[in-house]
Amino acid sequence: MQDRKTLKTFLEEVHNQQKKIICFGTGVMAQEALQYEQIRQAVVAMADNDVRRQGCQIELAGQFYPVIAPSALQENLDENTVILLTSGHYKAMERQIGEMDLPGQPEVYAFPELRVAYKADSEEFFQERFLKECLKEYETVLEQYHITGEEKAAKLQEKEAYILGRDGKERPFVVPRIMIMPTTRCNMRCKGCSSLLPLFDKPCDVEIGQILQDFELFFSGVDECIRITVGGEPFLYPHLKEILEYLLEQEKVLGIMMITNSTILPKAEVLELLRDPKILVEISDYGHLEKMSRLVQLLEEHDVFFKVLTDQVWTDMGGVECRERTPEELRFSYLNCDQGKVIKGFHNGKFHTCARSARMLALGAYQSEQDYFELKPEDSPEEIRKKLKGMFYRESADACNYCDLGTLPAKTMEAGIQMQGNIRKSRYTIVDRQEYEELKRLARVRKGEG
Would you say residue 68 has pLDDT above 60? Predict the structure, then answer.
């Protein structure tokens, strides 16, 4: 197994030495790897253990590739061909290849490890965890404002130039996204809840004064935050109006995302604020269609920008017991985890490396000297900026010892299943959102509305 190459150096070597690649694995991770042009153009075949795929052509990233059995690797390898493991099961694949009698000890690389091999002080770390993620978040913000085409491309280019910095000056400190968690209350008790809300015996709200103070301190230390997520079940928080009013006036945040379980209607005072294009309401469809339909109708009547997430599958993060992982395993878990990149945030006066860290600390499930710091009013903006950078420019977290989100292979589960069955799914056929929009359009045509 080859190591200590980053994805950047691997791509450069493939291009400069005109390497050929056989990808082992044809799932989601292969699709991700083939987004890179250097890999896409170098692949001569895909290998897969699934006999149903062997001998077929598979379309990935807009191109067709032949799929071979692992036993056929030997006849397809030469001195200029490398094997790229493109699966969450890459450890098992390493062992499988090690047991084969392959000629010349071919170079084998694991795509999951290549993409997290960068160091925190490297340009690649900045490119992958800041620039790329910021632009991804900014695309969503532009969508909220219905900005497309050439205008969208120009704004993305302008934002990229700003994040990269100009004229030899220090780069602005722009973060892609953080999450705030104003309450541990929820009207549902979902199995595998990422926020661990069913574990709270006495759920409670964070005081609004504390939240607004935390906002002030956080924004004093950053130049821009592309988006902020208000998580948990925000429509249960009694002071949501004050949170939204603050964020709508805050120029350093460009977009706000509200995540709701679709079963609660927002108050009238909140609903009026949701009409602002700066806000996106993300509705989780857990099959409670009667309640969700009322929410959807209400948001549509008030021209609120929203999305409905259907057929969700959650990654099973497991319980909060310690996993006893090695430092290298913790590093991989942290750098492989999306929460470590974009779901940092504050809760009750502390800024955390991820939302799960905040919840576990509130539960008393773990302690850490590195996963969070106190947002102190007496700290200067420079001190807060330094602490925030220390939280973002890092390579591991203690919280990863109590969570399986960043580990591979990932285990998945159906979203929104209730622990005690107290909220039942509606007995209707779930209609795809695009189909629903088409049905509405046809209804308008029949009514002569255009």
Answer: yes
